[in-house]
Amino acid sequence: MTILQVTPLPAPRQPSELLDRPVPILDRLDDPDSWLAEHGGSVQCLVTHAMRGPPAGLLERLPALKLIANFGAGIDLIDLDTARARGIAVTASGDLLTHDVADLALWQMLTLLRGLGAADGFVRAGQWSKGPLPLGRSARGRKLGVLGFGRIGQAIARRGEAVGMEIAYHSRRPVADVADRYEADPLALARWAEIVVIVLPGGGATQSLVDRAFLDALGPDGLLVNIARGSVVDEEALVAALRDGRLGGAALDVFRSEPDLAPILLEAPNLLLTPHVGSATHDARLAMADHVATNIRAFLEGRPLIGLV
C-alpha cells in the first residue's frame, strides 16, 4: 500500500517522519507522470493541503484510493462529489486550528481599532517627539458582525464578547443554542456592524460576496477582517473603498492569489496584510500534521477516522 502526498506541508514534521515510512511528494517528483503510471494503482492514501488540493485528473489516476487526509480546515479544493461516489473517506483538521485563527482575528481587529500598525511606524520614524499619534477607538461597545458562524466564527464571537463587543452573525441558518443576534442577509449584517470578520468557506457560493455593495453598507467608519478565503472578497472593490474613504480600514490574511498578491493591495491605504498565518503556530501546525498521520494509521489498522467530512 502506497501513501502519496501532494505538496510539502508547512509543519515542523512531515507525514513521512511521523509515520516513519517513505511518503513520496508529488510536487517534488522529477517525473510525476511516470511515477503515477508505475505506482498510481497502489495509492490508497492521499495527503492534501487546504491550499493545494489534488491536481486536475489526479483522482482518476488513483483507482485504489480510499482516504484523502487533508492538512487544514479548507476542503473546497477537493472534489467531494467524486470522493463520495467512489467511497473515498475525506478527513480535515479544522478543530485543531480554531483557537489560533480566532486569536489572529481578534489581534487584527484590535490592531485596526487602535491603529497599532501606524503607531509602530510613528515611533520608528521619530514622530513621537513632534506630537501625539491620532487617537484610536475602543473595542468595548463596538458592534462585531461575524460572517460565517462555524467553530472559528463562534470562537471569534466569544473573543469579541470578552473585550466588550456586541455580537451578530450571518450563516445559512440560525445556529442552535446561540444567543447572539442572527442576520439572515449579509448586507443587513454589514449595515448593523462596525467591524465584520469573514469566516466563510471558499467556492462559487461565496465568490466576491464582499463586494462594493457590502463595503458601502459597512460604511466609512467600518472595518473588515478576512481570515477565511481570499475569493470571498472583491479585492478591487476593497481597494477602491479604502482609497475613496468609503471604508475605514481592513486586515487581510488571505488573498485571491497567494503568495503573489495583486499589486493594488500593496499600495492601498489603511490595509493590514499578513501572509496567511492564521494557523501558523508551531503548536497548531504540528497538531495538524499529527492529525493527518493519525488518520492514516487508523485507516491502515481499520480503526475509526477522526474529523470525517
TrEMBL record:
One of its GO terms (cellular component) is cytosol. One of its GO terms (molecular function) is NAD binding. The keyword NAD applies. It comes from Rhizorhabdus histidinilytica. The keyword Transcription regulation does not apply. Gene3D superfamilies: NAD(P)-binding Rossmann-like Domain (3.40.50.720). It holds the Pfam family 2-Hacid_dh. This is Lactate dehydrogenase. InterPro entries: D-isomer_2-hydroxyacid_DH, D-isomer_2_OHA_DH_cat_dom, D-isomer_DH_NAD-bd, NAD(P)-bd_dom_sf. It comes from the Bacteria. Keywords: NAD, NADP, Oxidoreductase. Belongs to the D-isomer specific 2-hydroxyacid dehydrogenase family. Residues 107-278 form the D-isomer specific 2-hydroxyacid dehydrogenase NAD-binding domain. Residues 41-308 form the D-isomer specific 2-hydroxyacid dehydrogenase catalytic domain.
